[in-house]
Amino acid sequence: MTTEPGAAIRSARLDAAESMSAGRHVNAQPSQCYLNALRAIDSYPAAWYVEGYAILPDGVPFEHGWLTLDNGGEWSIIDPTISMMRRPPARYVPVLMWTRRAMQETALVARSMPFTVPGSPGFEAYAGIWTKDDLKEFWLNGLRRCFLATEGARTIPDGLAM
């Protein structure tokens, strides 16, 4: 049974073996993380589609898309794109999440991915329940969490805005 992830998703761990398998299954392509996740979700009916930030081992965050799955209360990350990366992310910071069905419906409407990253074609076409200002704030808060999650980070850089 899948539950709403809420704060539990923040402690999810990357399942590298399952991620590699998913990447092979969907023939994952570099720089296509959102599309790779969209293709992989059919293999994981209980998965959630996530847009957020991944943080490299050196602390650099980047916009990213992946899946997360409830394994009986233990949340795992399925990232089909890691097979294309030289170094897998050290951490994942979710910004927005959709159930499989909601994600597929959003994809049909937006016709472009990612759905909510400010400045992306999907963002311009997005017609969901949040305003564009809401989405910008969600992403900014996610970026703030990236800085707080980076080891040794004490403050958020001045002028951090979208």
Structure description:
32% of the residues lie in helices and 22% in strands. The chain contains 5 helices and 5 strands. It has helices at residues 16-25, 33-40, 100-110, 121-125, 132-149, and strands at 13-14, 48-55, 61-71, 74-78, 91-99. It has a 5-stranded mixed beta sheet. A hairpin with a 2-residue loop joins strand 3 and strand 4. The longest helix is centred in the C-terminal third of the chain and has 18 residues, at 132-149. It is globular, with a radius of gyration of 15 Å.
Content of β-strand? 15-25%
Number of helices: 5
Number of strands: 5
Order of the strands making up the biggest sheet: 1-4-3-2-5
Low-confidence stretches: 152-162
Percent helix range:
25-40%
User: What is the succession of H and E elements?
Assistant: EHHEEEEHHH
Q: Overall 3D geometry? A: globular
Taking all Cα atoms into account, the compactness measure Rg is 15 Å
Q: How far apart, in Å, are the first and last alpha carbons?
A: 37 Å
Biggest beta sheet attributes: 5 strands, mixed
The computed structural class is: alpha+beta
Mean pLDDT value: 77
